Amino acid sequence: MSAATTPLLHAQALRKVYTRGRLRHTPTFQLAAELRFDAPQIVAVLGPNGSGKTTLFELLTGMNRPTAGRVCVAGQDIHRVRRDERGLLARHYHQSYQVRRFHEWTPNALLDHATATQALVHLFDEPQFNVQDGYIGFMLQFFRRLRAAGRLVFVCLHPTERYQIELLRELAEHFVFVERGTVREFADFGGFAADEGVRAYLGTLVEVSPAR
Question: Residue 90 burial (CB < 10 Å; 0-12/13-18/19+)?
Fold first, then answer.
């Protein structure tokens, strides 16, 4: 695959299954995703609490091992990269600034070195959008600078105010909705806002004025 056709991020037949029970392994939650982003852009990610958004981010950054499928960043399988170098491919920014650790059996020395020297994919998990302290303007500029520098930027929100939807509408070029472990993509805000599941989740927050 040539550099011209290698996507920045490709989640191929990605699947994560959580189970309980030592013998029967009864599934308690499942997440499935097929995502491909070829060019730098800003992607809005929304969905109800417990729908799998954080699990998706952990899988995309290599912090959580998938049950099936793989995640490639610039053509490199992130789960085959040394654990201390995965942040050079994709980086997850938690609202709590805490990173969950998952045990892996493969020794770090047997994994590949990252081919990138700076993170190509940046995933922001519910950043604080507070209009009262000016911080929001700084964050919006930061997201746009990353995109201008050739990065793929994910912004995950659980909106409670209509202005947050308006901000995402102005900021994002692509939309992803996560619901009950199902990941759906939308090429624009119109398709996203018209989706029945999105409207049920957002209620009156999605009733915004037509695009100018």
Answer: buried
CATH number of domain containing 117: 3.40.50.300
pTM: 0.88
pLDDT tens sequence across 54-86: 999 999 999 999 999 999 999 999 999 999 999
Six-digit token string for 176: 């992803």
Domain count, the chain: 1
The dihedral of CA 44, 7, 76, 89: what is its sign?
negative
**Phi, psi values for residue 152, rounded to 5°:** -95, 125
What are the strands of the beta sheet with 26-37, ordered from one edge? 76-77, 68-73, 9-20, 26-37, 182-186, 174-179, 41-46, 152-156, 121-125, 90-93
